[in-house]
């Protein structure tokens, strides 16, 4: 079902926009497998039309869009940020009593991660944090999104606190605050303590309870930081890619376990929001969902509606409306192929109320879109980047934001990840495709704000080149290049572009 195909890297062409900068380079994909084929016309599910087709709902046309001639400005106080995560940048995987995570285990298994890469050295962020804060200051960002490594706080996922781990994050947060940078703290970015995995991981309910206890410890340690908090990073990717496709830790291939991992992560989110309120922690809290506009090829509206359920509504509906959609899980084309009754048996009375505990914000992670064919398979309808799962379509960001405005209860929105990898694994400073990508996505964000979307922040993924999961160190997403031998940091050209956008609080047409 998820065939491995050799990577075909595109020829470099710096003159074109991010839309055109890449051609398909499919390989075993980390989250969806694109089966090829370009849509002649497609319909956006729960959103707008493209290519002149009738909309399934919300009929505002979303054809290719051109920016105005004048720079587009952002509201005063708009937050510009950059993001990373613990396992991807910290390195120092055995320092100060850190326990093992599922990613350490996964990396140690031969053939799972490209080049046999591990979390060491990462970008050596655990030791170079002062240098990194200086880079952030140079960039001018108002906020930095990072994650706390649960195995540094509780090495076996429960029980006593590892004070050395807590102290490190306290120092780091104080460093950010001194630099005038708002901490944006993710509590779980996929590095589950291995001991909890051994006890069943996200397949079992107890892990959600353990997460709430861990969250309480971190809230307590950083109670006064006035941070933005994100409970779980991309529960969909962790559930599907880690528990169904098997190409992320913990490397399982069972869709029934994957949907259990969805429910228990969402429950963990809700329990953590409750603890946050009970403890009176300062700041705001929400979940970070990766969402993806789904465009149906002609005649594929029904399977595409199910893909939309599995990719988007399973998470959005649960968190924002307290319901699971009826069509995400089951045997039909486009669904997660798991037994719905067995899933429902995991959902106890009160769980959906917990999951939909009112949050302060919704964090949206946007990388691109997907097409859906009549057989329910996800197909490529736009060029992909060097990450074969990423179909480049900046207008999709607008479609997504407008959909959230129209179909869900009002809630402040943030884009907490958005970015593109370099074309090749080699260290690169010259990255016009990234500048084009960021420019076009900032424009779509500005366009959405002008149309009444309550968008408050935009974080670029990533501040630094880092460990990109199954791709190891061979896919570089940073606006700062990292030489993994020397750990020398060099800002890429896109860093300079981003600095100008931040300084002007505006994005120019070209
Ligand atoms: C997101 C992940 C992040 C990084 C980017 C490229 O899905 O949250 O850690 O891998 O993709």
SS-based structural class? alpha/beta
Query: Could you tell me the strand content as a percent range?
Result: 5-15%
- Which ligands does the model contain, each kind named once? beta-D-fucopyranose
Classify the helix fraction into a percent range. Answer: 25-40%
General description of the model:
34% of the residues lie in helices and 13% in strands. The protein has 510 residues and is α/β, with parallel strands linked by helices. The chain has a domain at 72-290 and 361-369 and 386-503: Glycosidases (TIM Barrel), CATH 3.20.20.80. The strands form four sheets. The chain has an eight-stranded parallel barrel, surrounded by five helices. A hairpin with a 5-residue loop joins strand 10 (370-372) and strand 11. The chain is globular and about 55 Å long. The protein starts with 42 loop residues before the first strand and ends with a strand. Mean pLDDT is 90; it is low at 1-40 and 47-61. The protein binds beta-D-fucopyranose. Beta-D-fucopyranose is lined by residues 85, 88, 233-234, 237, 290, 417, 461, 468-469, 477.
Summarize the topology.
Blueprint: E1 43-44, E2 72-73, E3 79-83, H1 86-89, H2 102-108, H3 129-139, E4 143-147, H4 150-153, H5 163-178, E5 182-188, H6 194-198, H7 206-221, E6 228-233, H8 235-243, H9 255-278, E7 284-290, E8 294-296, H10 301-321, H11 340-346, H12 351-355, E9 361-365, E10 370-372, E11 378-379, H13 395-407, E12 413-417, H14 432-450, E13 455-461, E14 480-482, E15 489-491, H15 493-504, E16 506-507
Parallel strand pairs: 3-4, 3-13, 4-5, 5-6, 6-7, 7-9, 8-10, 9-12, 12-13
Antiparallel strand pairs: 1-8, 2-16, 10-11, 14-15
Helix pairs in contact: 7-9, 8-9, 13-14, 14-15
């Amino acid at each position: 079902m998820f065939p491995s195909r050799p990577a075909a890297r595109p020829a470099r062409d710096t003159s074109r926009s991010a839309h055109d900068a890449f051609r398909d380079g499919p390989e075993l994909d980390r989250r969806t497998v694109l089966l090829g084929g370009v849509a002649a016309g497609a319909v956006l599910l729960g959103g707008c039309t493209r290519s002149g087709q009738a909309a399934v709902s919300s009929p505002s046309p979303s054809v290719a869009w051109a920016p105005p001639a004048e720079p587009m400005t952002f509201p005063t106080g708009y937050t510009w940020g950059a993001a990373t995560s613990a396992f991807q940048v910290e390195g120092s995987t055995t320092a100060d009593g850190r326990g093992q995570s599922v990613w350490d285990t996964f990396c140690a298994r031969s053939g799972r991660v490209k080049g046999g890469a591990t979390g060491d050295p990462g970008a050596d962020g655990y030791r170079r944090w002062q240098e990194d804060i200086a880079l952030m200051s140079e960039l001018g960002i108002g906020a930095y999104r990072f994650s706390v490594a649960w195995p540094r706080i509780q090495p076996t996922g429960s029980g006593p606190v590892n004070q050395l781990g807590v102290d490190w994050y306290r120092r780091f947060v104080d460093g950010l605050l001194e630099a005038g940078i708002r901490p944006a703290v993710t509590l779980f970015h996929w590095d589950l303590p291995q001991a909890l995995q051994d006890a069943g991981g996200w397949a079992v309910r107890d892990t959600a309870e353990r997460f709430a206890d861990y969250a309480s410890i971190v809230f307590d340690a950083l109670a006064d930081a006035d941070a933005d908090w994100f409970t779980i990073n991309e529960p969909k990717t962790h559930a599907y890619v880690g528990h169904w496709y098997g190409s992320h830790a913990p490397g399982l291939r069972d869709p029934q376990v994957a949907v259990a991992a969805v429910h228990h992560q969402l429950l963990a989110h809700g329990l953590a929001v409750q603890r946050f309120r009970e403890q009176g922690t300062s700041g705001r809290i929400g979940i970070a969902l990766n969402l993806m506009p789904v465009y149906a090829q002609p005649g594929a509206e029904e399977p595409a509606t199910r893909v939309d359920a599995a990719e988007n509504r399973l998470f959005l509906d649960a968190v924002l409306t307290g319901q699971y959609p009826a069509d995400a899980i089951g045997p039909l084309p486009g669904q997660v192929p798991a037994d719905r009754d067995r899933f429902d048996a995991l959902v106890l009375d009160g769980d959906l109320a917990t999951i939909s505990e009112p949050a302060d914000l919704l964090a949206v992670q946007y990388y691109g879109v997907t097409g859906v064919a009549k057989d329910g398979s996800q197909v490529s309808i736009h060029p992909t980047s060097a990450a074969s799962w990423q179909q480049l379509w900046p207008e999709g960001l607008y479609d997504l934001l407008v959909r959230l405005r129209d179909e869900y209860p009002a809630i402040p929105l943030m884009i907490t990840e958005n970015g593109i990898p370099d074309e090749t694994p080699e260290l690169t400073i010259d990255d016009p495709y990234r500048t084009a990508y960021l420019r076009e996505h900032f424009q779509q964000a500005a366009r959405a704000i002008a149309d009444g979307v309550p968008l408050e922040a935009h974080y670029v993924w990533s501040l630094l080149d880092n460990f990109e999961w199954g791709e190891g160190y061979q896919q570089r997403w940073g606006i700062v290049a990292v030489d993994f031998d020397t750990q020398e940091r060099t800002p890429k050209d896109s860093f300079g572009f981003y600095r100008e956008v931040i300084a002007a609080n505006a994005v120019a047409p070209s």
